[in-house]
Specification:
This protein is of the alpha/beta class. The protein is built from 10 helices and 12 strands. The protein has a 6-stranded parallel sheet, with helices on both faces. α1 packs across α7, α2 crosses α4 and α6 crosses α8.
Length: 316
């Protein structure tokens, strides 16, 4: 419980989703009792009139913008136009309407996909403009990166308090395990689990397994977002991550063991690898608002596999 949240009215876009549901639960634990989670059936956040109606109805003191059209490499290749448009138009109009409604604070969630394809490792926030993003997810990454431009421009011209956070790849219980739109960890868990059930001799994954990725447990991500919301009011983008990377091949071996799959792992090098390496510098988040991830990857993977076995399959 913290006094900061007790009288605040907070809108959490995407609050019923994977990350959003964890953020909403964490807000309640902190003592926030006035939380509005707009549902897509009632509010289409691509439509300005729906955003105006949302803000009129909820009169928020803060907006935490988590809603996104997002997926793995396959989904990004299949839907580059809609991923660009949906993410850009949602964010731009939510921030513009927040300015017009004089909402005191807006928390914009970016993406690690905004970084240049060959950014120096670990990714420093100061290097975000030093190149073009990896091609397979560039439309999504650039749409999200424009919200940083908007946040800084609105702060300069209007004095708007818009902060911008860059979380790394998220995972955990409640993740999206759909074959066509899931990210790497849930996709691997489902593939291994289904291969185990039918005694498949091998499981095939895209690429050659050499790229590295950094993974942040969803509860850690929620903690970082809320610490920033409480303590940070600056114009600099801030990474949220662990600062540790793992090769996709090594991740596959960990998940193979956790799912008890006994077959072979094969790699389809004709399919894209995505960005060669991804890991973040986490110093800025630690220095500015005291965030440090607490869940180790092995522990988080074990929790995620256990959740999928008991609850995840029923939702597919």
């Amino acid at each position: 419980m913290t006094a900061f949240w007790q009288d605040l009215r907070v809108v959490v876009t995407g609050g019923a989703g994977f990350l959003g549901s964890v953020v909403t639960a964490a807000l309640k634990k902190r003592g926030c009792t006035q939380i509005t989670v707009p549902r897509s059936s009632e509010f289409d956040l691509r439509r300005r009139e729906d955003i105006e109606r949302l803000y009129d109805a909820s009169s928020p003191d803060m907006v935490i913008h988590l809603a996104a059209s997002v997926g793995g490499i396959g989904a990004n290749r299949q839907h580059p136009g809609s991923f660009f448009y949906d993410n850009l138009i949602m964010g731009v109009q939510l921030i513009e309407c927040a300015r017009l409604h004089e909402i005191p604070k807006f928390v914009a969630i970016g993406t690690i996909c905004a970084y240049p394809k060959f950014a120096a490792v670990p990714f420093s926030e100061d290097d975000i403009w030093n190149g073009y993003p990896e091609e397979t997810n560039a439309p999504y990454g650039l749409a999200k990166k424009m919200l940083l431009v908007q946040a800084q421009a609105y702060r300069q011209q209007y004095g708007a308090n818009v902060i911008y956070l860059l979380p790394t790849n998220l995972y955990g219980p409640g993740d999206n395990f759909d074959h066509s739109t899931s990210h790497v960890i849930p996709a691997m868990i489902r593939k291994f689990s289904e291969a185990l059930e039918i005694n498949a001799e091998a499981v095939t994954f895209w690429g050659d397994g050499s790229p590295t990725r950094e993974f942040l447990y969803v509860e850690d991500a929620a903690e970082g977002i809320l610490l920033a919301a409480e303590r940070y009011d600056g114009d600099e983008p801030v990474n949220l991550g662990t600062g540790e990377e793992i090769a996709i091949k090594d991740l596959a071996e960990k998940l193979k063991s956790l799912t008890c799959y006994g077959g072979a792992i094969e790699w389809d090098a004709n399919q894209p690898n995505g960005q060669p390496r991804r890991t973040l510098s986490t110093d800025r988040a630690a220095n500015l608002f005291g965030f440090q991830a607490s869940v180790e990857l092995d522990d988080g993977l074990e929790r995620t596999v256990a959740w999928y076995r008991t609850q995840g399959k029923s939702g597919i």
